[in-house]
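We close this part of the discussion by returning to an individual protein. The sequence in question and its structure tokens are set out directly beneath this paragraph:
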Amino acid sequence: MRGTVWTAANQLGVVAGTPAELQSVLLSGAPRTLRLGRTGQDRAVVDELARILREFGHVRVVVEQVADSAPPPSRPVDLADPAAVCAADPLLITAAYEKDTAGHGGLRTAWLRAGQALIRDQDPAGRATALLAALPAAAAPQLRATLTELAAGSCWSVSWTRDRAGAEPRLPGPVAALTFAAGRLLIAERTGVVRYLDAEPRMAPASGRVTAMAAMDDGTVLLLDERGRLHTRGPGSPLTAAVTATLAAHPGTALAAAGDTVLVGDRHGSVHAFGPAGVDQVAPHSGRVTALAATGTLVWSGGADGAVWLWSPGGARQPAPLTERPCPVVALHAAHTPEGPAVAVAWADGLAALHRPGAKEVPTFRPGPAIRAVAVIPQSGQLALATDEMLVCLRPA
């Protein structure tokens, strides 16, 4: 069933791993048409997914007339052999791992974690990179070494990973936001617990589920909850108190900070820059502002419209978006690197991109699960991204 759900989710530009998750995503949007059925899929599973999705009447499901299954391989794929797994039909591998519950050194866990990315058409090196990023901490060392060799030639290499199970160092809870403070990666969990990477919690939970975080130069950490209210940890200031009071009456949808400026997005597509000299505003998006990033005097905003705009408070926005895709932006982060300001972007379909100054190409990565947060590592220009189960740092080639 997982392979069929992942294939359908990829077609629709969403992230889902179960029929219930796919159903939930579809119900939250406009009515869609979904075409199911492809060579290699079990026809009974396709029919069952079609039946489940049709129950709510919100999606038109068309089942294609295809063969019940692809021709079986001449001999079964060794599910403990990463090279064979990366080169085989991903739908067959997914079905095999669903039936075979042996761990295979951590390879099965990694496959089922990154599966939605793995069933896309790609070369074995790209598939090996996604598997390497998704490996559990307790994976066999030889498996990690072999996948690293197989990933040679990919546009990314994996610098380090953390997950929520297995050996230390461990990722404590689902990550809601990432940023940098005092030169270190700062992590906010959904509960509002804030910690540096591999350190004990340094701040108490917030009173609501956290959706965004920003750090100010004076050590103040700002947290935005799911109701659009602002929570302050640390010294605070008259400015942060004023922003907190403003958002109590007019909830925010996105948050960032740079220097002594606090930036807030709203559901109408506007970005508000609260600074010592007053409030500046720009309205770059059609619909909700979903993510903000800032460094120096530069501000990037992402929206439900899928666009990312660059703006400077007190100045005009750029004439064209930095990037735009047909699905909502879910996370942004910017930082100064040795080459200049770099920007990380993530979208609701599970794709992350790293925009670097002077680079001819923009490398992209799909971890498989939904991306909750991204960050640019200032010292190296690497990309950190978080899902519900893992945090991974990637180095662009």
